Amino acid sequence: MNQMMSLDVSKATIDESDLIFDLWIGSAKWLISKGIDQWDPNHFDVNQVRDCFEKGYELFLARRNGEVVGTCLICWSDAIWKELDHDDAGYIHRFAVSRRHAGFGIGRQLLQWAEDYIKDQGKHTIRLDCMLDNPRLNQYYQECGYAYVREFRWDNGWRANLYEKK
Fold first, then answer.
1. How far is CA 58 from CA 11, 47, 147, in A?
2. CB 74 within 8 A of CB 58
């Protein structure tokens, strides 16, 4: 059993965009290698990270012993929730853990940190989504206490499940 070590999570700066980008690309490549059409590595470029900062999204980096091991993005509105989008929710996106650090409980710790952060901002609902065709990730979020809300479909055929926790 792996010993749980504490994470140091802090708000990222635009100067750390390359670190975030590397985590996104690493996760995207790993997903593709597993046959999971969740994130396309060809879809990402470092300017997307910078755009997130410019749009006012909050990006965070998790470190363990000073080494970057994960990232997530938190925003306060999400269009895919449509009429269910509301001011009492925080939305977790671009949740990624370094593949070199997989299996050490970092994902659960980072997810718990994000949930606590959202609650500390006065919100009572935590929301996230993942591709419908990724059964393991859907199961993971349910195991973490998230309840299925509904399916969302994009025009290009992609389908995602929307989850929330109160």
1. 7, 16, 24
2. yes
- For residues 38 and 109, the model is more confident at 109
CB-based burial, 102-129: b 16+ in 10 Å, e otherwise: eebbbbebbbebbbebbeeeebebbbbb
CB atoms within 10 A of CB 46: 14
Q: How does pLDDT run across 66-94, given as a tens digit for each residue?
A: 999 999 999 999 999 999 999 999 999 99
In this predicted model, what pLDDT tens digit does every residue of 107-157 receive, in sequence order? 999 999 999 999 999 999 999 999 998 898 999 999 999 999 999 998 888
Confidence of residue 4 (pLDDT cuts 50, 70, 90): low
Question: Residue 140: exposed, middle, or buried by beta-carbon count in 10 A (0-12, 13-18, 19+)?
Answer: middle
What is the CA angle 63-75-147, rounded to 5?
Answer: 90
Length of the chain measured in residues: 166
The dihedral of CA 13, 18, 19, 21: what is its sign?
Answer: positive
Q: Would you say residue 37 has pLDDT above 80?
A: no
Alpha-carbon distances, residue 161 vs 4, 67, 147 (angstroms): 29, 32, 10
Q: Which neighbouring-strand residues pair with 133? A: none
User: Locate tokens 């299996």: which residue?
Assistant: 103
